[in-house]
Amino acid sequence: MSSSKTKMRNQADKARWERVLMRRPAWALPRLRGLIHAADPLVGRAAVQGAFFVLERWGRAAEMQGELQQALNDAKSQRALAEAAELSEAVGRLHYQRGDYVQACQAWAQTLEWAADDSRAACLARIGLTHLCYALGDWARGGRVLDQAEAHYRRFAADPYLHAKFALNRAVSLRATQGPQAALPALDEALAAARAAGHHDYEAEAIWHRARCARDSGDVAEALNLARQAQALAQRCGYRWLQAQASLLQAELQEGDVALAAAGAALSLAEVLQSRSLQASAHGRLAELMQAQGEFGPSWYHAQQRQQLDATLGQPELPGLLEALIRFDGELPEAAAPASELAGLLRRALGELSGLSQHVRGLPAGEIVPATQAELLRTASRVEHLLQQGLRQMAPEA
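Now predict its structure.
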């Protein structure tokens, strides 16, 4: 049989296995665990990947870390680089979920080094790099990296799982760069592909993203309804990451004890997932809610927890490492924006900041804690000073 036909058969076999794992994970997991130490190393490594796929969606990926790393080491020592690339991509996901972004970037770099350029593993690694761009707030570049992944892996349209994954990530970029309405067609596409794949996780995720779009559009009632739908579906299929995200969104959309319960549930799930970014967000919302209720001690505690967790997510070496990898992988450097355009953006930011400061000053005493109001105004003043300093430095010399 030719290598191309073998490759196609392997891909078809993998697609069938994925459908089984998505639809009957509880049935598949013990059988996969029984195959991890099979005499045939190919079978054993495939079983490791399958077990990781199941446990990852249940929020238990850390259980597979040792076996995943051992399988990766064995594949490297046997020069089974295609398998090593797939295993390294999974290791990258494990690091990313915890908030270890530098290690995730390094694992995905290894995948790109070992995998064929048009392979599924390389495609998934590039999607991982997209997530790192999003984590840094570089939504536009994340969208371009996603374009690159799509261009390299042209079979995605016939792969409902990856089709849904692409559409979800496309929606994230569009929502951040063009607004919630621009993201809705991509979310419709993601929902259709997820249902075609039988992937209820991504179906729930598409609904959650629609809830965020409704929130951004000011439709709180619709956002809350969709967030509850997403949480219920995520709970039915055991997708803990999305359960936590949907709970957190409900905490954001509500106030009082109901919001406190939702934020507490999100924090508990985030701790099980070992996701520092989710934990930070949950602590932040708990700090806000407790301050609103006059619980200043607990509010301070949660604010400190958020600050400490955010500090671990900074990882200052990540931007340089990520940019070098993306450019090496084929993205052309961006042309620098003209100074006049940058100056215009700075002036626009100054105008919006001035409007925000006036709004905060005009808030009635009962709507904001005085200490918070004062801190917001001090922060706005510092930012205004930095923006004005930037404008002065950009001004042409006389």
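Residues 370-394 form the longest helix (25 residues).
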